[in-house]
Amino acid sequence: MTSQLVALCFNANDPLRVANFWAGVLGWELAGDSREGVTLLPSDDTGFQIRCLPTEDKKTGPNQMHFDLTSTSLEDQQQTVARSLELGARHIDVGQLPEEGHVVLADPEGNEFCVIGPGNNFLADCGFVGALASDGSQEVGYFWSKALDWPLVWDQNEETAIRSPHGGPKITWGGPPVAPKTGRNRLHFDLAPPAHGDLQAEIDRLVSLGATRLGLDQGEDGGVLMADPDGNEFRVLTPR
Length: 240
Prior knowledge:
Blueprint: E1 4-12, H1 15-26, E2 29-34, E3 37-41, E4 49-54, E5 65-69, H2 74-87, E6 90-91, E7 102-106, E8 112-116, E9 129-134, H3 138-148, E10 152-156, E11 159-163, E12 170-173, E13 187-192, H4 199-209, E14 212-216, E15 224-227, E16 233-236
Parallel strand pairs: 1-4, 5-8, 9-12, 13-16
Antiparallel strand pairs: 1-13, 2-3, 3-4, 5-9, 6-7, 7-8, 10-11, 11-12, 14-15, 15-16
Helix pairs in contact: 1-2
InterPro entries: Glyas_Bleomycin-R_OHBP_Dase (IPR029068), Glyoxalase_6 (IPR041581), VOC_core (IPR037523)
Protein name: VOC family protein
Organism: Nonomuraea zeae
């Protein structure tokens, strides 16, 4: 058995503020607030939690990945945008064109996300959280497909996407050009090995797929810090 994606983690200067924002936008519940951060539990088929973790580092540059939220109609899209703005979001310009039909926003700490217009065929069978759209190479898409044992649902022109066999959002990578990495990513994945599994065996498997071990994590969950083939950090938690 392979590791499971258990959480998407946001490094935040004010974890509770960021958590409250996403809870309001997504309709998820806050499950805990501690010195190690705030956890949100999904109320849909997303399949992983959101964890907002404390950091003193300021955000610099666009994130490597962001949410694409879906809409059932233009009115639904407008309502999602309005709700997000009321909760503390703001409009941002990342070079999007009017004809692209999506609205680009940033949460209270500048984390980008898109509210996609209705009729998007690629996300047609996905829920409200349609995709976690990522900047990344074809190689890293292949890596995550094997790491999570999720099938490739898109592989064209060096763009890739994977999706859990159980449904939920797609994770996509846009292919080249991949922006150069400057410092630690603001968002990262937490993986959990199989229950009572061998952590070292799972680390070795991920390394064989192209990951790099960065060191031991010092947080309350323990585990190992790693990086995927594009250098994006992720954690493999200690089995429980």
